[in-house]
Amino acid sequence: MSHPTNDQATLQPGHPHAAAQAGLMEWHRIVADLDWESLPALLTDDVRFRNPASFDAYVGKGPMVAILQTVFGVMEDFKYERHYGRADGYVMEFTARVGTENLVGIDMVAFDADGKITDFMVMIRPVSAVMSLAEEAGRRMATASTPASA
After folding, report:
1. What is the full DSSP assignment across 26-91?
2. Quick one: average pLDDT of 119-148?
3. CA-to-CA distance for 28 and 40, rounded, in angstroms?
4. Backbone torsions φ then ψ of 115, nearest 5 degrees
5. Phi, psi at residue 125, to the nearest 5°?
6. What's the confidence (pLDDT) of residue 55?
7. The pLDDT of residue 148
8. Chain-centre distance for alpha carbon 70
9. Among 58, 79, 111, 140, whose CB has the most other CB atoms within 10 angstroms?
10. 67: closest CA among 80, 50, 91?
11. How confident is residue 150, by pLDDT bands cut at 50, 70 and 90?
12. How far apart are CA 96 and CA 129, in angstroms?
């Protein structure tokens, strides 16, 4: 197993650029208002969304919006607790609940020079909360995509 050296890992200390800061403020507004119709304007066309239930990334606005809208409908008592910044984005720690199970997670978000989200990764613990969230979100998405009987 190799260990990263300083030339393998790029450290980006400091505060996110102004456009990333503005993008983050818009993200918080969208989450607070559950305004998913405004989310596509904050995303690049080829945004990469990585959730804790799947290793492979989803690419594009449509999948990210659909998944987040569903997940935020499942989670309760969602609250951002802390933020950590680097030149192009943030890591944001959050807490929430799925049914009776508490969870802690982080969102790792990168922004481009225009303040649009280019990459969004979610990590959650404990694993039982990930499983509960994925199961219920999957059920809701399957129900939403099933055509009604005539």
Report:
1. HHHHHHHHT-GGGHHHHEEEEEEEE-TT-SSPEESHHHHHHHHHHHHHH-EEEEEEEEEEETTEEE
2. 88
3. 14
4. 85, 15
5. -135, 155
6. 87
7. 54
8. 12
9. 111
10. 50
11. very low
12. 10
